[in-house]
Amino acid sequence: MAKLGISILSMDYMELGNEIKAIGKAQADFIHLDVMDGYFVPNITFGPDMVRQIRKETDLFLDVHLMINSPEKYIAEFVEAGADKITFHYETNEYRIEELIKKINNCDVKTGIAIKPNTKVESIKPYLNLVDSVLQMTVEPGFGGQSFKSKTLKNIEKLSEWKKEKNADYLIEVDGGINLKSAKLCVESGVDSLIAGSSFIKATDKDEFVNRMQSLRVSTINETL
Ligand code: DX5
Ligand code: ZN
After folding, report:
1. What atom in ligand 1 is closest to the CA of residue 8?
2. DSSP state, residue 121
3. Centre of ligand 2 from the C-alpha of residue 64, in Å
4. Residue 167 backbone zone (phi > 0: left; psi -120 to 50: alpha; other: beta)
5. I need a labelling partner for 152 at 20 to 30 A (CA). Which of 11, 116, 186, 192 fits?
6. Full-model pTM
């Protein structure tokens, strides 16, 4: 069974309270919060205060995806605001990854490492036994509503192979352009956890959408969908 997180990036922020309720009602597994600084990616979103507000509205697991330079400076603030997991980008801090992972682990939250579609997946291999999850970006980070890049499936297959080889337990996650069609390809390639923004917003029956995404698993894909 796949886990499903919902990204609030493209939601109507004036309606966020209701949107958060809808995510809970549909029984998604977690909420994905995209933090962007205008430097690491060409877009700006929100900071710890927004996470704090959302924390007050829900008990769901809050997955904070930091698309910012110098993520080490902000970890404590996001944790204090209520983050349950901090995912940082390998590309922001290639030389001090272990320190950064330790810093997140020491805050007693889950740790995720993310890579952009063009980053070599081999570059994060040394850290796979130190993190809880690996986030393969399946679009260029920065904006919601883009199309899934299928070339990233090769990386997912490698992550999945290495996981089996090493008997490791990191979750493989994908983010960007995830809908029922791309989600199937991802799960077939070994993904454990899906993140969806626009496809959730567009779904008319949100409960059914969440249920169908969560029901994806390698053995049933061909039979049921
Ligand atoms: C992109 C973000 C994604 C995005 C997903 O930089 O990290 O989380 O919100 O949105 P969709 O599903 O619309 O691609
Ligand atoms: Zn994201």
Report:
1. 9
2. G
3. 8
4. left
5. 11
6. 0.96
- The single residue listed with the structure tokens 């995912």 is 87
Q: What are phi and psi of 216, to 5 degrees?
A: -65, 130
Is 192 a known active-site residue?
A: no
Neighbours of 73 (CB within 10 A): 9
Radius of gyration (C-alpha) of the chain in whole angstroms: 16
34 is catalytic: yes
- Rounded Cα–Cα distance for residues 94 and 65 (Å): 17
CA of 175 to the centre of ligand 1 (A): 6
Ligand 1 in reach of 183 Cβ (< 6 A): no
What would the pLDDT profile of 56-95 be if each residue is shown by its tens digit? 999 999 999 999 999 999 999 999 999 999 999 999 977 7
CA-closest candidate to residue 60, choices 117, 10, 3, 130 = 3
Asked if 89 and 40 touch (Cβ cutoff 8 Å), the reply is: yes
Q: Which two tokens stand for residue 150?
A: 């299928």
Could you tell me which residues are beta bridge partners of residue 197?
A: none
Structure tokens at 164: 């089996």
Which tens digits make up the pLDDT trace of 92-133? 977 799 999 999 999 999 999 999 999 999 999 999 999 999
Instruction: Locate 88 and state its tokens.
Output: 């940082």
